[in-house]
């Protein structure tokens, strides 16, 4: 019996090739898209779960109130926090502190002198940290070489990644070799770790032993990532309830001195990537909302594929009515007919699953490159495929699809009255037609929503990439300066600036401590000179020279920029005291800082005296000019309050970057000339540069990835919907071929016939648009709230999605209709 069912089902699929291909391809594309989406979602949700202690590791951010309220919440905390928590709370088993090397040296290079004087290998390195010796005990990053219990125990030791080891030592054993950081800090290599996996919220290449520096009692340096390992079963709410007394014990006097408040929280390690968007995040994190919306899209695409199958099956039911009638007259029971049609559905779903696997295998490497993440790595070992629940869900989804999408058509087909069917009296079911319309409406609604989402995302991306940043980004080359300075510092800086100006393509050059496109590391307190410390609040500091405004083309709101005479050598990080009272020290402030200081206008701010903290000292200065606000960070963020100061060229580490405005007509020649000058000015220092516009736009990688993913899967959803529409319109036109022939014989024009066929589809698109537009308006506004600066919603974003869908529908339906309209009506009527 089963063999007969299978043979009949197979013959029916082969006989209706177009119908079968559309169903199989539509389901396969839906399943493949769904797989990719949920693989991406699973990968985003897997961050940091590979650590053995992951359920018990928490990060401790700090939130500010009072005078420091503008600081919000920072993921870094004071270095004394870890030791104090372990000492005061029995729930804390251990802790790890990490501080970025860039807090001390913005540009850092490592050097290795090969044995026998064969040469020196020098490279700039990023993601360098000082860490506690407990790092590899708390976290589960695998060590390839070395002992995890002792590798960071001794001073002047360093552990490096596998990639870094290969770069400096090739295939040689790097253990006990010496690397020199920034030409002055030698460290012995005591371990090599595997490169951190993609799904780690913090990436690092080099880890130095943290030597204390008296930090265990330091509550005035909130720049340290602090992770604590809690005892299993710890009630985190009860532990957090102890924090206010703990904070008052260690920070109470400091908070009173500067009139601010602090609070701590325990942030689960596994929640960081998707839910944490605080200040000073080590990496650009993902988004829980993004994961949710992508999950919804995945479900939408699968539903569209399933509704296609139901629509085509119920529409084709009239063509198989006589087959059903003959089977029933021959004694077939309703149950047997339902089994027959369910088996056909099962075969189509199996074939679709096979095609899905082929699509996934063929396109997975491309998809990894497309989204910029290797999400398939470790799929069967630690990824989605390693969980039995994934295979159960996959099997469940397949069976659900095969049964549900086959059940309704099977019920319709097996319910036909054999007498009426064999007399040719097929009565159209109102329920059948209504369900088909509902399913089509649902497809059109989802398609409009997906098109709108893609438009909004890409418009916002375009707005951020092309928005006015308040300064010049194009044709600006940024060069990393040496991290270590000495008595020759001034002469080297002067030499480079003078000589590089002689390169024909160079327009101007400036030295700065920061460049746009990153958070400013240096911040401290500032106030009006007429107020006491209780009115201090935090602001950011950037050191610049007199060519800064001209090179970056930053406009002034009031006053003037620095002149060479404003350069001062009194700025010293480690020197305590009060400075600037006996001299006219000049600074610039931006509009945001002027407003935060309490001045009503830029004009009022001019020539006012302010007091700011710099290192261990307190400095009095006069505001020489007010700089127009510009975007230091991405347009997701608000303007930062910034104080600009001008140290002397002989100061210790005054600058981190040289920004060169240039004409890029002959780029290779220009870069070669600039590099040659740099190497003469700073011998032994590797030359590393980047263009400012590329660097700034790199902040939008996560947003660009979201746009790419949205665009891809929205397109796939529309393709799947079009496949179903193509099959459905072709079948409907086939049923109305004789009607079209009669209308043509009676003189109906082509346009009226096309309108007749497409009007039902047009009505459904209009209805779907009427319901979708308010939803689009609400959803777009909610999503754009994530951006401090965002595109304004225009009528274009609401009108365009329905119009695009209407065009797609009309083209699909009319192309099918034209075949019947242009055919000779005699052929369609001669059988009557």
Poorly predicted runs are none
User: Major sheet: size, sense and barrel closure?
Assistant: 13 strands, mixed
Cα(first) to Cα(last) distance is 39 Å
Rg over C-alpha atoms, rounded to the nearest angstrom: 34 Å
Proportion of beta-strand residues: 15-25%
Helical fraction equals 40-55%
> Based on helices, strands and strand pairing, what is the structural class?
alpha+beta
Shape: elongated
According to DSSP, the number of beta strands is 28
On the 0 to 100 scale, the average pLDDT is 85
Number of separate helices: 25
What is the gist of this entry?
The chain is an alpha+beta fold and 832 residues long. The protein contains 25 helices and 28 strands.
């Amino acid at each position: 019996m089963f063999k007969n069912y299978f043979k009949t089902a197979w013959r029916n699929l082969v006989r209706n090739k177009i119908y079968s291909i559309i169903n199989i391809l539509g389901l396969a594309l839906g399943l493949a898209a769904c797989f990719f989406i949920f693989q991406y979602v699973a990968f985003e949700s897997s961050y940091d779960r590979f650590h053995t202690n992951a359920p018990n590791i928490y990060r401790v951010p700090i939130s500010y109130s009072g005078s420091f309220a503008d600081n919000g919440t920072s993921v870094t905390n004071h270095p004394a926090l870890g030791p104090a928590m372990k000492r005061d709370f029995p729930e804390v088993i251990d802790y790890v502190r990490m501080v970025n090397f860039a807090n001390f040296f913005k540009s850092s290079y490592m050097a290795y002198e090969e044995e026998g004087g064969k040469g020196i290998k020098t490279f700039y390195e990023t993601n360098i940290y000082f860490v506690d010796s407990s790092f590899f005990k708390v976290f589960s990053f695998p060590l390839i070489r070395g002992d995890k219990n002792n590798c960071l125990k001794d001073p002047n030791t360093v552990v490096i990644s596998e990639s870094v080891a290969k770069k400096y030592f090739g295939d040689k054993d790097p253990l006990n070799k010496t690397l020199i950081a920034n030409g002055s800090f030698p460290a012995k290599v005591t371990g090599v770790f595997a490169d951190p996996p993609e799904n780690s919220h913090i990436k690092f290449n080099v880890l130095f032993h943290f030597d204390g520096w008296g930090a265990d009692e330091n509550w005035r340096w909130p720049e340290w990532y602090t992770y604590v390992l809690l005892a299993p079963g710890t009630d985190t709410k009860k532990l957090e309830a102890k924090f206010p007394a703990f904070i008052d014990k260690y920070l109470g006097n400091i908070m009173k001195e500067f009139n601010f408040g602090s609070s701590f929280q325990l942030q689960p390690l596994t929640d960081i990537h998707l839910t944490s968007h605080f200040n000073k995040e080590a990496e650009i994190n993902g988004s829980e909302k993004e994961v949710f919306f992508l999950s919804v899209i995945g479900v939408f695409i699968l539903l569209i594929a399933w509704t296609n199958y139901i629509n085509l099956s119920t529409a084709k039911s009239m063509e198989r009515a006589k087959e059903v009638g003959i089977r029933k007259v021959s004694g077939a029971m309703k149950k047997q007919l339902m089994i027959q049609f369910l088996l056909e559905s099962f075969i189509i779903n199996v074939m679709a699953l096979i095609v899905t696997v082929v699509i996934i295998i063929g396109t997975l490497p491309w998809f990894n490159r497309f989204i910029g993440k290797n999400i398939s790595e470790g799929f069967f070992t630690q990824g989605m495929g390693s969980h039995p629940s994934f295979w159960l869900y996959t099997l469940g989804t397949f069976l659900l699809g095969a049964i549900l999408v086959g059940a309704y058509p099977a019920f319709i087909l097996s319910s036909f009255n054999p007498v009426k069917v064999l007399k040719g009296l097929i009565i159209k079911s109102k329920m059948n037609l209504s369900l088909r319309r509902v399913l089509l409406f649902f497809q059109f609604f989802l398609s409009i929503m997906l098109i709108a989402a893609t438009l909004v995302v890409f418009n916002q991306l375009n707005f951020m990439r092309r928005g006015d940043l308040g300064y010049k980004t194009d044709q600006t080359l940024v060069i990393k300066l040496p991290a270590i300075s000495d008595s020759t510092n001034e002469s080297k800086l002067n030499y480079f600036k003078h000589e590089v100006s002689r390169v024909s393509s160079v327009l101007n050059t400036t030295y700065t401590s920061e460049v746009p496109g990153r958070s400013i590391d240096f911040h401290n307190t500032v106030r009006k000179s007429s107020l006491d410390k209780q009115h201090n609040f935090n602001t950011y500091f950037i050191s610049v020279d007199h060519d800064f405004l001209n090179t970056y083309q930053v406009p002034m709101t009031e006053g003037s920029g620095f002149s060479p005479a404003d350069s001062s050598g009194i700025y010293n990080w480690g020197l305590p005291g009060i400075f600037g009272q006996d001299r006219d020290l000049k600074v610039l402030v931006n509009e945001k800082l002027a407003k935060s200081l309490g001045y009503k206008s830029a004009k009022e701010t001019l020539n006012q005296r302010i007091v700011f903290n710099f290192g261990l000292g307190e400095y009095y200065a006069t505001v020489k000019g007010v700089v127009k606000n510009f975007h230091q960070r991405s347009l997701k963020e608000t303007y930062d309050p910034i104080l600009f100061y001008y140290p002397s060229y002989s100061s210790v580490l005054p600058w981190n970057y040289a920004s060169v405005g240039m004409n890029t007509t002959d780029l290779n020649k220009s870069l070669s000339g600039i590099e040659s000058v740099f190497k003469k000015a700073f011998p032994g220092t590797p030359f590393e540069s980047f263009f400012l516009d590329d660097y700034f736009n790199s902040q939008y990688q996560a947003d660009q990835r979201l746009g790419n993913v949205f665009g891809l899967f929205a397109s796939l959803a529309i393709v799947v919907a079009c496949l179903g529409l193509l099959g459905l319109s072709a079948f409907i036109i086939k049923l109305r071929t004789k009607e079209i022939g009669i209308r043509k014989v009676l003189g109906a024009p082509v346009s009226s016939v096309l309108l007749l066929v497409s009007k039902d589809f047009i009505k459904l698109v209009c209805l779907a648009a009427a319901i979708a537009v308010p939803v689009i308006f609400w959803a777009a506004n909610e999503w754009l709230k994530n951006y401090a600066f965002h595109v304004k919603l225009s009528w274009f974003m609401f009108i365009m999605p329905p119009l695009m869908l209407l065009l797609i529908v009309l083209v699909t339906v009319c192309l099918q209709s034209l075949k019947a309209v242009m055919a000779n009506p005699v052929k369609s009527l001669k059988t009557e």
